[in-house]
Amino acid sequence: MAERYSSFEPNGATWLLQRITAALLVVLLAFHFFQLHFLNHAYEVTFADTQARMEDPAYFATMVLFLVAAAFHGLNGIYNALVNQGIEGTRKTIAKYGLTLAGIVLVAQGIRVAMAMAGVTIS
Amino acid sequence: MSQSYDRGLIEDFGRWREFSAGMWAWILHKFTGWVLIGYLFMHIAVLSTAIDAASGDPATYTDTIQGLESLLVVRVLEIGLLATAVFHILNGVRLLMVDLGVGLEAQDKSFYASLVVTGGIVVASVPTFLGGGVV
Amino acid sequence: MSTEQDEPTAETTTDADEAPAQTPGDRRREEKQARMQVTERERAEAAAAADETVQLKVFRFDPEVPEKEEPRFDDFHVPYVQGMTVLDALIYARDEFDSSLTFRHSCRQAVCGSDALFINGSQRLACKTQLSALDAPVRVEPLPHQDVVKDLVVDMEHFYDQMEAVEPYMQSEEFPEGELEEQRQSPENREKIKMSTRCIWCGACMSSCNIAAGDNEYLGPAAINKAYRFAMDEREEDDIKEHRMRIMEQEHGVWRCQTQFSCTEVCPKDIPLTEHIQELKREAVKSNLKFW
User: Fold this and answer.
1) How far is B18 from chain A (nearest CA, A)?
2) CATH number for region C53-154
3) Domain residue ranges of chain C, discontinuous segments joined by +
4) Cβ contacts of residue C160 below 8 Å, gap of 6+?
5) Which of A15, A65, B24, C121 has its CA 20 to 30 Å from the CA of residue B59?
6) Which of B31, B41, B95 to probe by mutation at the A interface, max A CB count within 10 Å?
7) CB contact under 8 A, A47 and B51
8) What are the tens digits of pLDDT across the range B41-55?
9) Which residue has the higher pLDDT, C271 or C35?
10) In order of start, what are the domains of chain B with their CATH numbers?
């Protein structure tokens, strides 16, 4: 291997990112659950309420961060589980790009939804 | 040596009685993880009704959510989701501590603690989850 | 047994006087026979005196005998003696009941690391596992997740390959001045790596590891602990430590550890394996962040 030790090993970087997103998600997921089940009851949710929340840029940004962190943490978790099972070669490559694609689709759709809720429209 | 014998995976679920705390924690963490990422995809799919709602008909969104919430099954499943999320969070905190090298000797106790606390929170939340407008 | 040899010396001298035709060889054979009778009698007495026997269920497999190709469990009822270990019981079963029973053992005192077995569902050293601490019947199997060669003997090749992969030897190239000068280590540093030096290469940890069972390329707890032992040794230079960290940082290195603590729980030498692996993970992240 030609690369210098200083180039961040991708495995170490994803490991660290997995922990960082974990710490973020502990807070965000607890907040999300608390807000939408205890503070506001899920059965009373209306589109107007959702719009009101999403129109706050700070809330919007938090939710997008939440989505990105959760998507990475979850899909990287699945990838790790597969590698732990001993997945190799082509199947591993397929898993890697398949999961990345799933993540991109999930985040893109999530942001589209969030923008619709916030009343931002492009097109 | 003529041949050898591959006994396969000995520590499979058939030996679950012999699993230790750390092993159980790993199994449950993995299982709850799968559930949560599966839920995230579903969650975004359901919320996608907001796109139609924004382009004119707010009822699409409100009716979908309130329609789902009026079903008892959904409420029960939500309690399950809460249990899953709370356990994953608490055991996740335990794992972060292990990663930081804190309290490795108490890793089994912290696993039992996360189970007990999860149970407590879930039981305490049942009224909130079942209250209000279940058909 | 060897200590008994001196005893009859006085008698033999008188014997030799009375019957000069007897050769020294004859005398030795006679003595040996007498000794064997004594030990046999002692054994029989011990067996009779033992109120209890311990039932062992032992995994059997022999690819060279067609009737034994199909793995099975054999029962052995071994007379229990206070302080008996699983290894003692296996030796008794082999010596008294079935000489074809095959297992590795050598020092009998948890130093050589050759008799790690799967006893009552857990990886243990047979020589330091007391029968009194186990529920009967005692189930003795070869180490899981390794190919069985015969009976309780498993193929350790892959385990040794992983151990070699981390270069388990001192690579320091700086030597102190003076011909007979030692490479000194501070007491604190010695203390730090102390537990990691206790590894006896028995393979119990690797066999207990769920991830090593799935991912064949995973270095495994023993090899990572070995790497820790040298990476943390202050006598090696920084560039050698970097070289060692690079081996640890591969995809199938430290990152595969899922902190199940299985290895730490089965290690017969009580090495805090998970702790060492975790420390290497943090070390890898830290040194990368520093350079980044």
Assistant:
1) 21
2) 3.10.20.30
3) 53-154, 157-171+187-291
4) C201
5) A65
6) B41
7) no
8) 999 999 999 988 888
9) C271
10) 20-130 (1.20.1300.10)
Name the residue type at position B1: M
Does the CA dihedral C158-C272-A6-C233 come out positive or negative? negative
What token pair was written down for C212?
A: 């090593």
Residue of C nearest to A88 (CA): C215
A93 CA: distance to closest CA in chain C (Å): 14
Q: Given C61, C155, C259, which is nearest B22 (Cβ)? A: C259
Listed as ranges, residues in chain A with pLDDT below 70 are 1-9, 121-123
pLDDT digits (tens, 9 = 90+) for C105-162: 999 999 999 999 999 989 999 999 999 999 989 999 999 989 999 999 999 999 999 9
A40 to chain B nearest CA, in Å?
11
CB C261 within 8 A of CB C198: no
Domains identified in chain A, total number: 1
Contact of A47 with chain B, judged by CB distance below 8 Å, is answered with yes
Among chain B, residues having any CB pair with chain C shorter than 8 Å are 1-7, 9-11, 15, 18, 20-23, 25-26, 95, 98-101, 104, 107-108
Query: What ipTM goes with this model?
Result: 0.87
Q: A1 touching C, CB under 8 A?
A: yes
Range of the domain at A89: 23-118
Q: A13 and chain C: CB distance < 8 Å anywhere?
A: yes
What CATH number was assigned to the domain covering residues C157-171+187-291?
A: 1.10.1060.10
**Quick one: B84 exposed, middle or buried, by C-beta within 10 A (0-12, 13-18, 19+)?**
buried
Q: Measured between alpha carbons, how far is C275 from C113 in angstroms, rounded to an integer? A: 22
Q: Do C259 and B7 touch (CB under 8 A)?
A: no
